[in-house]
Amino acid sequence: MIGIIGDCHLGASLKAGTKDPVTGVPSRLVDYHNTLLFAIEEIAKTCDTIVFTGDIFEHRYPHMIQQQMFSNALRRALEFGVKQIHILIGNHDQQRTASTTTLAYLSELKLGNIIIHDEPGTVRIGNDALHFFPYRDRKYLAAPTYAEGIVAADAIIAGLAANLAPGSNVLIGHMAIEGTFFAEEEAELYTDNELMLPKASFAPFDLTIMGHVHTPGVVSTNPQIYYVGSLEKRGAFESHKKQYCVVDLQNRSADWKTLPCKDFYEFGIGLPKTGVDLMTGLLAQLVKQIDSTDLDGNIAKVEISVSSEDIGHLNPDAIRAELLRRGCSFVYPPSVSVKTERACRNDVKELGSDTETWSQYIQGFVTDKDFAAQLIAVGNNIIAEEEA
Question: Strand, coil or helix: what is 183?
Fold first, then answer.
């Protein structure tokens, strides 16, 4: 049995939390670390091998705290009884300006039981084999065209298939498969540099498990191809459950387990010109939306729309406080959009003079007479200059 953990992205979505006032460690990084430890501990109950699909860190120059937390997770895995840890290199792990990776420090330690796969390769486990395909794109493969990139990637797969074991063969990689629908936040992958590998190329393998794409799911049942997804959620656009995978080599099957991630919720509230009762109305709208939502320990964002004449009655902190009172672990500062209420003037005619039209326009929505007079004067001067 082997456990497979998807893209970790330690250091992502840090703005969706606070910083510890003493240590300076972001609360969201702690969330990621806790989820990672949960997956490792659960996997260690039935598996002696763990595979990470890549993208361990969000950024190519990870903070030392992020490296410390990942190293801590590896140590904990070994303490739990895991005998081998395999880590694929993903696109976020590659240092494109130098021939190294963010995990090169682990490679240099040559620990034996922690293996970094920055090159394609095969590892035998008894009569079975794990085949590793780290991230490669068209430029990495020095392919002038997309078609040539696919040919080069297929050659890598064929090379792995040449080392099939007599038992089960599982390919684990950090690549995209043809027909994949990317989330809007992954739109940068829609380029001719990103290779979408043909499903048929994986026919020699009993199972193919890919990272890289953050939504877990079935790509194909014949051959069996799956995405394990990513470790944690980054926003409300990820409404799916996050999972890790346990592969039974004997039965050549995969079992999916849910991770205890925090959910993100987005709410939109707004009222036309209301006056002193604005906050009562906005809070009533918010409560109606959240009454059926489990906010406990989760993360929320609110967008508020109000009239320009009501802006003085708005108290965004009260909206945020209500969500925190309902159990949210973090609430983004509310986003406020202000709508200007403009009166319709039937007496403004197309045939009127420019200065007359300007004056009537300003008087239609600026209630402060002195300020309106200043705007009219400035506008009239500009009109005069243009007509001179």
Answer: coil
Q: How far is CA 161 from the centre of its chain?
A: 32
Residue with more model confidence, 182 or 270: 270
User: What amino acid is encoded at 364 in this protein?
Assistant: G
Rounded CA Rg of the chain: 28
Strands 196-197 and 243-248, by their bridges, are unpaired
CA diameter of the chain: 91
- Give 107: exposed, middle or buried? Use CB within 10 Å, 0-12, 13-18, 19+: middle
Which tokens belong to 336?
């406020």
Distance CA 355, CA 357 (A): 5
> How crowded is residue 7: how many other Cβ atoms within 10 Å of its Cβ?
29
pTM for the model: 0.83
Cβ atoms 334, 321 nearer than 8 A = no
Predicted confidence band of residue 25 (pLDDT cuts 50, 70, 90): very high
267 and 280 Cβ atoms separated by less than 8 Å: no
Q: Strands 169-173 and 207-210: what pairing?
A: parallel
Q: What is the architecture of the domain spanning 2-258? A: 4-Layer Sandwich (3.60)
Residue 361 φ/ψ region, left for φ over 0, alpha for ψ in the -120 to 50 degree band, beta for the rest: alpha
How far is residue 218 CA from its own chain's centroid?
20
Block residue for tokens 């973090």: 330
Q: Where are the domains of the chain?
A: 2-258, 264-339, 354-387
302 pairs with which residues across the strands?
A: 267
The DSSP letter of residue 311 is G
Residue length, the chain? 388
Helix 278-290 / helix 316-325 crossing angle, nearest 10 deg: 30
